[in-house]
Amino acid sequence: MAMAIKLSLILLLCLSSLLAPSFSLFEDQVGLMDWHQRYIGKVKHAVFHTQKAGRKRVLVSTEENVIASLDLRRGEIFWRHVLGPNDVVDKIDIALGKYVITLSSEGSILRAWNLPDGQMVWESFLSGSKYSKALLTVPSNLKVDLDSPIFVYSGGCLHAISSIDGEYLWKKDFAIESSVDVHQLILSGGSDVVHAVGVTDSSQFDTYEIDVKNGGLLKHTSASFPGGVYGEILPVSGDRFVVLDASRSVVLLITVNNGATHLQQTHVSDLIHGSSENTVILPSKLSGIFSLRTDSCIVFVKVTDEGKLNVMEKVDKTVVVSDALALSEGEQAFALVQQGDSKIELSVRLVHDMSSNHLKETVKMDHERGFVHKIFINNYVRTDRSHGFRALIVMEDHSLLLLQQGEIVWTRDDGLASVIDVTTSELPVEKIGVSVAKVEHSLFEWLKGHMLKLKGTLMLATPDEVAAIQQIRLQSSQKNKMTRDHNGFRKLLILLTRAGKLYALHTGNGRVVWSTLLQSLRTTSQQQCAGLKLRQWQVPHHHALDNNPSVLVVGRCGLSLTSPSALSIVDAYTGKELQNLGPAEHSTVQVITLPFRDSTEQQLHLLIDADKRAHLYPTTPEAASIFQRESENVYWYSVESEAGILRGYGVKKTHSSEYSFEARNLWSIVFPAESEKIIATVTRKPNEVVHTQAKVIADEDVMYKYISKNMVFVATVSPKASGPIGSATPDESVLVVYLIDTVTGRILHRMTHLGSQGPVHAVLSENWVVYHYFNLRAHRYEMSVIEIYDQSRAENKDVLKLIVGKHNLTTPVSSYSRPEVTTKSQSYFFTHSVKAISVSSTAKGITSKHLLIGTIGDQVLALDKRFVDPRRSLNPTQAEKEEGLLPLTDALPIIPQSYVTHAFKVEGLRGIETIPAKLESTSLVFAYGVDLFYTRIAPSKTYDSLTEDFNYALLLLTIVALVIAIFVTWVLSERKDLQDKWR
Amino acid sequence: MGSRKWAVEFTDNSSTPSTRDIPDPPGFTRVPHDQDDSTLSRQKKDAEANWKSQKAWEVAQAPFKNLMMMGFMMWMAGSTVHLFSIGITFSALWQPLSALQGVGKVFAPYKDSKVDLLAPKLLFIALNLGGMLLGVWKLNALGLLPTHASDWVSSLPPAREVEYSGGGIALH
Questions:
Q1: Residue A543 belongs to some domain of the structure
Q2: Which residues of A621-645 are buried (b: 16+ CB within 10 A; e: fewer)?
Q3: Fewer CB within a 10 Å sphere, N or C end of chain A?
């Protein structure tokens, strides 16, 4: 057996040495096994650009810090820019009709992008003296010395910036005189004055009038009210503002008139009869009207010229209101969206005539999209000179829809831009029995298809038929079938998004098979829910093949760690929520998948709550008995990164209830707070398969790997060096890495990198860990590898003993036996900074590994693990060369062909998931961020399958020829034998 | 003598050439006729046996040539593993094996009660074993024999772990 393997390995080596070591693909192979999807995320703000000439587009900024220009007709992305995770977009607007202006990073960066193609035109950095709200005002028709200034309030200063080149015109610092917090910038049309309206110490109301030409202060009025304010000041008309007082029960109407400020108080209870809890003023700017939302309803209040507040209308609290849209002189319209059951009602009203709906449309809406969160409206002029409206709505699941004339023009599933967790599910097995009718039907279809194809090749097909041929090609494509395939390439990728929606994507072409908005994770007005983890719950193998596989979604309802958790179990084939276990009475800070299954193939899970109690799921007596049997050997640990403590726990014998268990403290590792701060921890993937425990090195020698699933890699840096690169000198920054056994708390290995600092990205697999950090002395990024070997098994080298099986290599090991370990490590320079590291995983773990590195350029680079082998030396011996050991180099090579994402970018890359296919040579790779990318890789080439361009015809021909030759020679030899006998 | 027209001589003079004036045809050697039948057949058998044993020895020695040939080819094939060297090595192993299987058949034509076939057979076997050893040696030289510990442990799965531990940083 051993020899057979050896032989096959040798043959494999021969084969692989024959093939050139490139992993690239040809241009026409793009899209055969990979797909790439581009998203933008949940839209925060949208600006329409619908001029008569040119393409109609909408500019959006999103919660994923994306600014994008979308085609209004089809929803496609014209251009898109993903700003960094710390560069949050505050405001977006259009200037001069050709520039998109964005204000980001708390108002400190102002950029202008060219509208048609998205090129950056200019960029300005605004410095402020203190933190403040960021405001942006782009006047549409203000000219100051042939320039159109943009007004930005940020950092306590008002800046005027030229919209042509981004030059500073002037700056007015409010923080010098007082600590005013400006809420609104108002530019009344035609005048040369900017009004800044703000609050000082939340008790004094200030208005400033500032000259647009030079920033000179023209007028300052203030009025104090001791009650304090809550929330933002909202302008109602040119000189009137409303704000809530601190108790949220009084509406203050502020009137600025000729340098005097008048305050007028109205109780909310006078406006709304009944409960008025949690009152807020909605930020929709409607002239002369403001809207108040309470727990029970939304009211529109008109401010009359005399300063009286009149309630105009009371609507349901789920109604969403848009900003006002100027139609023509003095006419303004705004939109309301009312949520119905599986439909929404969109109504557009004119501000001056609130009594009737200008337009009312009912649109059917998939209830899996949840509630409407935001609405932006835009108008167009119909042929009969009347106004038509289109509405862009953002749904609860972060999807974006365009409504026009009562229909959904297009939808974008932008919830997929914020994937939290990924798991996979097998597809159903193909049914073998096929009915006669189906066969007849398929035969007919087959004939028809072939006729069409024949027509196509003879150039006789009409355009319709050509389209039909293409359709057949796409549908008959093997990779998109909804059944399990032999190689295990077809799977369902199940994605949990930040919106609490679960998506199932087919790996063949990335289409959404189903999507479910999880009821248990829906954010309500009382609590904010979010998904945390997605785990496989039931994976039917042998006993329960009739059951569909299912996944467990763990979420949390609330913002703190002690908030109750929400659990639900979802069918992986249909997306139906099978069980809604939440909100559970306990919190969840850890989800541990135990390596045990019950008779229905349900995976046992331990959920650890904030009080260190363990809760067992599923809550069945069978699961409890399995857990009771195994509880002696179940441990868990917690990493308290703020306190710098690792703690290990076991299960207490006495348990509080049948399914919840008390923890007993077993060990703890306390890192000295003055010198070490935890910045990264990594463990092995729980489902990783390792083929062998021995590593054969040159001269047929053996090293035994220390393979333990209970190993954690911890990286700490000195607290001074925990900031960004450059904040600490090399002398004061120390990076320390640990390998810790999580059962006993034993430190297996500790290594210090002087003059290095984070961020650390690491991957732990088999017996090695590779981590990436910054070396301050060399001013370069470095990658290090640690391989850990079991010294207690090293004596197993007697061939005779091994042949007769007298060795301890297969006996179960316990961490308490404290095996001796040795480590080998090496460091290399690496050019890129890294966003994520992962490693390829295959079904049996035989195939060699590739590191998958998410680079700063949002691409995924495959790096052969052989490059990070600590046994590399400058001059490898002949035997080592034969083993495949590469000569040591100081830097790791970056081969352009080994980018698995080839021409694509996975913008905002956050994670890389690898899934083993059934075919041993192949690993499926799914990278997610704002974009999604999927492909398959074969780290050792596809040695177990024929390539697609294999010449089957030649093989068949050869076989046929051989069979004929055998037959002919047999006949000939028979004849000769007969002749010989007659002689 | 002159009056005699003809005469028939019944005596066989074939064994007495001296009495004849006609010389024997060239290449014809006269077997002495004075031996009786038994001695004649014995002689004949002896000769056959001799010949058989001679042939048997020849057959027994034949693998030697093969051996030399194999040795040369192996030397030519080198010590790296590729198709040629593996083919040669396996044929070097297979040939002696098949020869040893058919050792009875090879020596069957020379089977004789008088001929001692044991020694040639032993030589034949020994030479073939030698060939096989050569093959095995070559196999070892190529590193294809499981003589190292690595060959026996390289496919051993990792040992099962008794304990199980999970956890990490608190989820948020």
A1: no
A2: eebbebbeeebebbbbbbbebeebe
A3: C
